[in-house]
Amino acid sequence: MEDLRITTNLLRVFRVLLDDLxxxxxxxxxxxxxxxNVGTIYALVARLQRAGxxxxxxxxxxxxxxxxxxxxxxxxxxxxxxxxxxTLREHRADIGLSGGVHV
Length: 103
What we know:
mainly alpha; Arc Repressor Mutant, subunit A; 3-stranded antiparallel sheet; WH-like_DNA-bd_sf; WH_DNA-bd_sf; PadR family transcriptional regulator
């Protein structure tokens, strides 16, 4: 696995992805929810995918009907869930998580 540098932005993204494991997040949605610049999101999801912690699926939508290109949705892999939970536990203070927040 690629050596991931643990940053506040990465921790924020992990928090959003772990909040609802069944949700699929596209980059702009993830950017807004995590309060991370969308350009940074693209770099983070690329790193997470290379590390095998995140998978992506292209939305099955007709661009003409939807009036926009298909979105790429991101979800943590099983390994990604374990890694994100462990990393958040180890770095709670870095993003101001209280003991009452479950990871």
